[in-house]
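Before the break, one more example. Copy the sequence into your notebook; we will annotate it together after we see the structure.
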Amino acid sequence: MAELKEEPRYWGWKILAVVVSGILLFLFYMWFYVHVLGLDLPKTSILKRQNADWSSRIDRLSQQLDQQEERLSMLEIRDDRIYRSVYGLDEIPQAVRLAGLGGTNRYQDLEGTALHYIVKRVDVMEKRAYIQSKSFDDVAAVQRTAGDMAAHIPAISPINTDPATYRMSSPFGYRADPILGIGKRHTGMDFACDPGNPIYAVGDGTVIKAAHEGKGYGNHIEIDHGFGYVSRYAHMSRIDVVEGQKVTRGDCIGLTGRSGRVTGPHLHYEIIYRKDYVNPALYMDLDIPSKDYMEMVRKPEDK
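Here is what the structure looks like once it is written out:
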């Protein structure tokens, strides 16, 4: 009876030994497979293949974003330098076009992943595309009225071109200040003439300033012509328009004089394009015969 009782115990230990040996052999095999042969486990190999596939997809997406970003940049450059410039619209600052999106935790869930940079680029490009779309809307709105552009841009002399009635006393550019005697930029053209000569609007627009002052520009007028252009007429003896009034090219807006800071009677005439002074001589033909000039304007008695 004793021998029969020992047999099950013997087989139990034998089975346990076989199982333990199998486990140890499997662990040795795995160690040898990974650390000696340098091979990946099946699951690791599958994950690496999946990771390589996703990395390849992200690389292709990044390349596509590079191409789309280049196309968007070209649109922005053409928009600023051609479309907006032609219609007198200010360029959109790069700080506005390239501004990021708010929210410090916006990409928190993606930090440390390959998608983090991609998602940020997509969001910024989406905002840039929206700004560009709004810019095209602005250009389209101005373009619908562009038929009037030729009538608005300053294009004639502000006074009669008869050389017997005026003398060009100071052109646009740097000169010695007639009062201070120091070098200073002259932002307009000075037509020396007797007080009382009619002054004419050089283009269609709206009077945005009609000031009566005893210093500086003296009595002066500013007309907004749209498309980025503003004209200024200074040192007048009389102003015949009011702020907010619509004027047409050739309308008489007042008379020359010597008000403000002057050394003698003259008309100081300026053109400001997109907030910068430009040479008025580029926008007029002073050689046009006086008779032809007077056919383009309205004499004071015609008003």
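The chain has a mean pLDDT of 83. The helical segments are 2-36, 42-86, 94-97, 115-143, 149-152, 290-296. Try to locate both features in your own notes.
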